[in-house]
Design a protein that fits this description.
It contains two helices and five strands. By secondary structure, the chain is of the alpha+beta class. The protein has a single domain, classed as Nuclear Transport Factor 2, Chain: A, CATH 3.10.450. A five-stranded antiparallel β-sheet has the order 1-2-3-4-5, covered by helices on one side. It starts with a helix and ends with a strand. InterPro entries: Cystatin_dom, Cystatin_sf. GO terms for molecular function: cysteine-type endopeptidase inhibitor activity. It comes from Atractosteus spatula (Alligator gar). Belongs to the cystatin family.
């Protein structure tokens, strides 16, 4: 219930303060399992896969940390772990059906930092920052 109140407050703040010149509130931690967080994380993962030169696509294995801030929309700043799947890049639209590699030579994990700006009024998102690095196995 508290999470719903935070999300509703954030939505209303975006609607009222849309033209603000700067951040309206400091970043706040948010439940990594919330729908808005997963929507932003999925969007960032698709963005990563579209730009990746890897033959295989990656999918979210964990959302490690996330904060939300009202700043011209709802800004999600998150650290996400991605795992390499057996699905070829550009050929599989449904990440949920993709199985992760487990063999040492094929399995890879990435720790990614994404910043996604979501505009719930226009139902649009955009990437403000994206960086990934290999996780030591």
């Amino acid at each position: 219930m508290a999470l719903l109140a935070v999300q509703l407050s954030a939505f209303l703040a975006v609607a009222v303060l849309r033209a603000s010149a700067g951040p309206v509130a400091p970043p706040l931690p948010v439940d990594p399992n919330s729908q808005g967080v997963w929507g932003a994380a999925d969007y960032a993962t698709v963005y990563y896969n579209l730009r990746s030169e890897d033959k295989y696509i990656y999918k979210i294995t964990a959302i490690l940390d996330v904060q939300v801030q009202i700043d011209g929309g709802i800004k999600y700043t998150m650290d996400v772990e991605l795992g390499r799947t057996r699905c070829e890049n550009g050929k599989t639209p449904d990440l949920e059906s993709c199985v992760l590699f487990t063999a040492p030579g094929e399995a890879r994990s990435l720790k990614c930092h994404f910043v996604v700006l979501s505009d719930p009024l226009l139902e649009k998102r955009r990437i403000l920052d994206s960086s990934c690095r290999p996780v030591s196995e």
